[in-house]
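Q: What would this complex look like in 3D?
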Amino acid sequence: MTSPVQPVPDHLVSALVRDEPRVLTRITSLFGRRGYNIKSLSVGTTEMPGVSRMTFVVSGERGVVEQAMKQLDKLHDVVKIIDHSLEKYVDRELVLVKVRVENSERRIEIRQMAEDFRARIVDVGRHALTFEVTGDEGKITAFIEQMRPFGILETMRTGRIALTRGSNADIASHIYHDGQTETLEPVYSSAPREGKAREVNNLF
Amino acid sequence: MTQPDAQQQPMQDMTGAKALWATLAAHGVSTVFGYPGGAIMPVYDALTFYPEVRHVLTRHEQGAVHAAEGWAKATGEIGVCIATSGPGATNLVTGLADAMMDNVPLLAITGNVARHLMGTDAFQEADITGITLPITKHNYVVTDPDELPMIVAEAIRIARSGRPGPVLVDIPKDVQLAAFGGELVRPQAHPETPAPRPEVIRAARELLLGAKKPVLMVGGGAQGAAREITEFARAWQLPTITTLMGLGAFPASDPLWLGMPGMHGSVAANHAISQADVLIGFGLRFDDRVTGRVKDFAPQAQVIHVDLDAAEIGKIVRTHLPVRSDAAHAARALTEDAVPFDLPEWRAQLAEWRTRGEHPTTWGAAQAVRQVVARLRPDDILTTDVGQHQMLAAQLARFEKPRRWLTSGGLGTMGFGFPAGLGAAMAEPGVRSIVIAGDGGFQMTAQELATLTKYDIRNVKICIINNSYLGMVRQWQELFHEKRYSEVYLGDSNPDFLKLADAYNIKGWRAENSGDLESAIDAWLSHDGSGLLEVVVPNEHGVFPMVPAGAALYEMIETEPLKTAPHKAPDLGEKMNVVAEEQEARQ
Ligand SMILES: Cc1ncc(C[n+]2csc(CCOP(=O)(O)OP(=O)(O)O)c2C)c(N)n1
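A: Here is my prediction, written as structure tokens for the whole assembly.
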């Protein structure tokens, strides 16, 4: 038996998807149906009309995550999957943290600490300060840990977003097999996989 | 197939509905199966302008979708079905899930309420795209009439390309009615299927060359590559197993053929897998009914898995050499420089296994099925429903060609057999479409007898194996639930099947013992027209060999335990533990 508290690794994956009705439902329902665990998900438009980008943090063993990526890749709306563990990348997350302020002494202490993290104050209350922090996972975790002793009232995180370093056209697609990865020719530079992305008005 | 001129209709009269038919016709769709209703009426109205497309009115939307599946499975072409919104659309759901599991290229067209009513719980509104999201390869709501031809063309391409599957196009009523100002489109070209990389083929060849106990396993994904697979197997002299979905992809008359693997597989196939040192699989997905306990599936084998769908490789069974490729490409590449195996010991072992697992010779379902399938001609299509008769047919029929065996494998859909056989019969009026069904499953779609009559379909031969029970469930209750026969008896309320057939003007025959059987079969098959044969059999026979759920293939029960012995649950120990089975499936 393995120990029950063994941490499950996190994987950072991005997907370029066609901006069509239900694409988000399609993806989340696929994850739900097959029992993959999404820890965070953020979605936004891209520089290309009709194409959105999603970044997922999926937790699970490598094999599970590979299977999730392969299943995702089969969806007609998915143009491309980027497995960040195979490339160098930058990632960021934005977090709002509301911290309890007991007295003016504490207030100074908290503001000092926030400055070290370059956290911005976005709201000031009589008994609370709300900070905005941006950074990679390590920085955000560290900030929250530093604030915890003062008393965290609420937090909200956007979820991680990531981009591969270097020029986009270099990004290859990958095919996963047990323990092996096969790199495909970049498809992105030519056309999205199934012809041009169509624009369909969102009805819902 | 005729390619009528899609531009025949004056463009100024074009509506969304007409554009739909024009596009289907341009794609060579000659027959669609369907059922009208409020939200699809403009499409049915427009149909009257397109005599080049034949519409088959079934008696239930489930009949329509299975008939379209039968059409597609037999021909390899797209099957098309149509239904109205709400209940019409939801009646398609079972067939769509079936087509998804068995990779049947299918286009389902549904009507829906007008755009401005969508999302308001309007009369007969159902969110069919939401409902079918996980059971279609893709689906669409058409919101702009001008896009209809493009969407339909894309839907057909998606349904047919790569790993085929069902695609649903939902068309709001006002889109059907709207004036069409777009362009009609030509059929889209199929994307190229991936060919294997040379270094992967070299590696596969190396593995094969080192094998002492090689086995080839062929699945449903190789139905379109039967010729290449057969050449490959023969060139290497590879003992060959075909899965339930792969039956026919390799000729059963070839001495290399070992039968079907899995829960009701042959002794030879299951033992061969268990002892193999190299197992090469083409176009299969290692379903749990095929693998038995996954941990002990092919425990000694290096597995080479050839599949178009990367997600299938390594999904269930550990793969030593993944080959992402179309089956035909890979088989052809591996046929070059083949070195035929000369392995007398392995061959002798296989020959010994092949003698085992005989069926009972006394009067019963096995005898009936054996006699029916013995009369199959190579071109005949054999369709089954789901249950004991299905497994018996899979074990006993001998197919020489692909696409002659139509069965619901992945979903195991009762009610599939008869309408699928009907659809196949309409696709190929020149061949006999033989349907074997149980008394339970036949009654799930028996109303399609009316469709036989309505269209005077003359080549459907239905054989009902009537054991008065939901036989397969009864078998499990007998073996694993200490004979507590809970809710499986039908005998007190089954119709007189011959009277039922007669009520639809279909001729019927009945056999109740081995003495009647041959003459009844001959009369039924030689009758000029469709017919129904009911074979009344005892209920106590089970289907064997059988690998109990959760057991390893080599732990199969080879022949039926003696009925005369006082009942004792088979000693299966923990193998029967369904929880363990599920856990292990997730390993
Ligand atoms: C739609 C559907 N409902 C239930 C089942 C579960 N099931 C599998 S086999 C079977 C019994 C089939 O009985 P019958 O049609 O008489 O065939 P037999 O097994 O007796 O040959 C049942 C109920 C199913 N496969 N499909």
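A: To summarize the key features: Helices of chain A lie at 23-33, 62-74, 104-116, 137-147. Residues 184-204 of chain A have pLDDT under 50 and may be disordered.
Q: Very helpful, thank you.
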